[in-house]
Fold this protein.
Amino acid sequence: MKKFLTLLLISLFINQTIKAQTSGGPDAYGYIWRDSNDPLGPTYNWIDVIAKGGTQVGSLSDDNSVGSYNMGFSFHYYWYDVSSYWIGSNGYLGFTSGQLSSVFAAIPSTAGSQNFLAALGADLLFD
């Protein structure tokens, strides 16, 4: 009987699916996010920027950033305007110079850096 109950409990846990969060917000500034798995999210559409005439960025290695690069326009990000960026090897765009760690704080926050977008937000490794 114990084996049966143990097997039953194990099968219940194995058969349960964990649904990843596909949207969030709004935060204190009204920002929300959705990924392409959310029913109201964007349709995934990979664009190969190299094939479109983009510039391949070199000099990235473990835990560094390169830049600055001019956007050619500015946009309002939380409480300030942004017109240039740095590319960080940990999967983010920073809006001031300097390396950010791969453990990103929530934005907005009274602690830590708040001047980045972390689309990948991971410690990326380079060959």
